[in-house]
Amino acid sequence: MISPPQPHPMIDLLARETAVRYAPVPRRLGETELFPGRCALIWDQFVLIAAGGLAYHYQRGAGVTIERPPGTDPAEEMLWLNGSVYAAIASIHGLLPIHASAVAYDGAVHAFTGPSGAGKSTLVAALGARGLPMFCDDTLVLDISDPQQIVCLPGHKRLKLTAQALALTGAAAQEEVGGLTGKNYAVPPGGVWRGALPLARLTFLDEGAVLGARAVSGAERFARLNDDHYTAELFALAHRSDLAARFDLLARLARAIPMAQLVRPRDAMRFGASVDLAETLVREGPP
Predict the structure, then answer these.
(1) What gap in Å lies between CA 230 and CA 139, rounded to an integer?
(2) What is the CATH number of domain 96-284?
């Protein structure tokens, strides 16, 4: 059994840094002029202007300022705050956000990553119904300061599911997410894990006709980590990483993180079997 670490100081820091106030937000950061649908990260500041008019400004030590147009959907406001803004704040403070959903088991975090629509949230909800609490949905924040033990920090993410995912998992729907996502917030069937835990494994979700799981090793680990998701871009901006620095980081993570691949057919009739295999992967490891 992997023992959980002591309370992590970055949990309280992130809680302070994500405190919100409402006021006008600048449309320029440095020499960068910002328009709807654009964002910028320079040094210890981040500005995001959402397409619908919501605007966010973060500055280290000052929290988050939100400019809320009249008639704004509160669910959409939280969607941006808990997504891009949270990832930017984590990056500015030296933490690595990755595009993943995760469950907690046996004192460690088991994370699932893949492109949007790969079924990360649906799988986490289904595993929750089998007694595995959700650690995060969509964005996992890693403390990578100790190469011998990567620690996962709990975010304030909420589970987001499509109507089909709600039906497959039996999760209880809450309000709509907003932003034309076609999703609802949902109650995690297994509850939510609140503390920091070490990372046990990162599993890549792929679509395929034949259900299967395997360990990922060697150079494939490096290639799998070379993600172009916005979370990776924000981290690179926060640390002004050139190609050499990014290569070094990916190589270090590839050595440190156990990895697996889970191949699943996108077939509702075979969903239960894919969850069976995912649960075995979490509880026992890859074959």
Answers:
(1) 11
(2) 3.40.50
Arithmetic mean of pLDDT, 74-99: 91
Question: How wide is the angle at C-alpha 153 spanned by C-alphas 151 and 154, nearest 5°?
Answer: 145
The answer on pLDDT for 89 being more than 90 is: yes
pLDDT the model gives residue 5: 47
* 61 pLDDT tier (thresholds 50, 70, 90): very high
User: Within 10 Å of residue 116's Cβ, how many Cβ atoms?
Assistant: 8
Domain positions in the chain = 9-92, 96-284
DSSP at 268: G
pTM of the model: 0.91
Greatest CA separation found in the chain?
54
Contact 47, 25 (CB under 8 A): yes
Q: Give which of 101, 102, 25, 29 is closest to 66, Cα–Cα.
A: 25
> β-pairing, 63-67 with 134-136?
unpaired
One-character DSSP codes across 177-222: --TT--EEEEE-TT-B--S-EEEEEEEEEEE-SS-EEEEE-THHHH
What tokens were used for 239?
Answer: 């640390």
Where are the alpha helices (H) located in the chain, listed in sequence order?
9-17, 74-80, 86-92, 120-128, 163-169, 219-225, 230-238, 243-256, 271-284
Rounded to whole angstroms, the Cα distance separating 126 from 190 reads 9
- As a whole number of angstroms, the distance between CA 201 and CA 190 comes to 20
Q: How many CB atoms lie within 10 A of CB 75?
A: 19
End-to-end, the C-alpha distance of the chain in Å comes to 19
